[in-house]
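Quick start: read one record
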Amino acid sequence: MSSEAESAVEAASPSSRLTLTPDRAGGAQPYEYRRVELVEPDWTRFPGWRHITATQWENAQWQRVNCVKNVKQLRAVMGDLLDERFYADLEADMQHTATMSMLLPPQMLNTMVPAGAPGGAAYTEAFYADPVRRYMLPVASDRLPEWTSHPHATRDSLHEHDMWVAEGLTHRYPTKVLAELLSTCPQYCGHCTRMDLVGNSTPAVAKLKLELKPVDRYDAHIAYLKNHPGVRDVVVSGGDVANVPWKQLEAYLMRLLEIETIRDIRLATKALMGLPQHWLQADVVEGVERVARTARRRGVNLAIHTHVNHVNSITPIVARAARTMLEVGVRDVRNQGVLMRGVNAHSHDLLDLCFALQGEANILPYYFYMCDMIPNAEHWRVAVWQAQQLQHDIMGYLPGYATPRIVCDVPFVGKRWVHMVTEYDRDHGISYWTKNYRTSIEATEADALTKRYAYYDPIDTLPESGRRWWAKQED
């Protein structure tokens, strides 16, 4: 990389370090906090958006209509900023390895290389290195040439579909359910854990489809919850609830609030960050206020869970959307990020993000998940020991209530703090975990609470002996 390109990369993403432990040289603190004021990147730096007004930009419908869905549309926005090699790299990934189709709202694309850079080679290098680009717009050269997928990777790595008790209703934990209302989002993340269901089919993945009409699917959810009073907590998700027409979503939430045993409702929406304009629409704000008022009156905790992975994604309009939700009565807005190499797998990146979330946007850092074992995701995943080190390195900087837990979502087990591993074979990259409850598909398994469940580190992170061992297993 040229010195000009290196400068462009540093300017575009000052905290996008790829190492996993902070520099402890000398007597300085490993991390120095400095408050950074949020800034909305100037979208007119992109040739295709030079004449877009602030009124257009803040309009949710404009954002949806102008989402970037293919290479042709990306070219129209970027003009001559990117070299042709990037587009070829992107096309190769879309044709052979991408598990999610391209869908980028302007808001999200605008947070890539936010400080700008010279065009041509320097900009292309900065765009390649950008942490938001790395997971929202993956290219073929990002993927590992060997062990692109782990041998144990599966499309539904958490077996959520296996645990459906009604279409789209996963009963995985004793007191909690996941309600997938639909299979679309305003934006598609390359690492999506529900890549078997969410979004359009790609050449690499033919997606499953929800078959029931929404009204029938929602009726089935409500009927199950009325008949299972042990469930008290509903995560309303998808896809993304921002894609559910508001009247339908409000009606569903009001029906949940009529069930006396439901005490927690969480709305899952990455769009609070990717399309904050949606959550600032008058009809949505007024509707959330009605739901929140009813929740408060009935003693139910209503929260929004969003998904932000890098500090560059936190802009003033994102903060405004989060604060608006709090002002109209949502109890908490929380963040559930995903640890990914090249994006945030460094303590500095996590701390920068958490301080921006908690201090500037009133979004509570809640979880960081280890990226799930889905196909073609090995270049993003971190090993358990790396996640443990990250948890160690972020302790003591944030307020205790705003210090996120780093968790491993173990198949058939569920979320576990990364230090809760029962046994860990570092050479082969196999960790073993136990659990204290049965899922909805284990009612008759006598050993469900005593057996150990395996989780696997990325093979490229293993010592040479471990990599050789896995190569033999594949022979």
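The chain is about 35% helix and 15% strand.
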